[in-house]
Amino acid sequence: MKQGTLLKIEWSDAGTINRWEEMEDLLRELHKSDAESFFTVGFLIRETSEWISVAQTVNYNGSKVLERATEIMSVPKGMVKKINKL
Q1: Is the CA virtual torsion 70, 13, 9, 37 positive or negative?
Q2: What does pLDDT average to in each consecutive run of 10 residues of the chain (86 residues)?
Q3: Backbone angles phi, psi at 77, to 5 degrees
Q4: Which of 2, 4, 73, 83 lies 20 to 30 Å from 59 when distance is taken between CA atoms?
Q5: Whole-prediction pTM
Q6: What is the pLDDT of residue 83?
Q7: How many angstroms separate the CA atoms of 83 and 41, rounded?
Q8: Contact 38, 10 (CB under 8 A)
Q9: How big, in percent rounded to 5, are the helix, strand and coil portions of the chain?
């Protein structure tokens, strides 16, 4: 995809359990298939085989070339469920 393309990324986050659990209860709770989805919208900055990075705010120069960006969100591709062009 072209740098600067506006995207909506659906992704899953990693999780943690920070309390003592009996193994039977712990194994029942881990890796539930109804994991929560998160959504990030932004302008594509860079995409590799392992990561996708988008910016919330960008600035183009007079030649319509992406010149500056801020508020960057990078998501590991292994956590990405879906990417839609907006």
Answers
A1: negative
A2: 95 84 85 78 97 96 87 96 97
A3: -60, -30
A4: 83
A5: 0.81
A6: 98
A7: 10
A8: yes
A9: 10, 50, 35
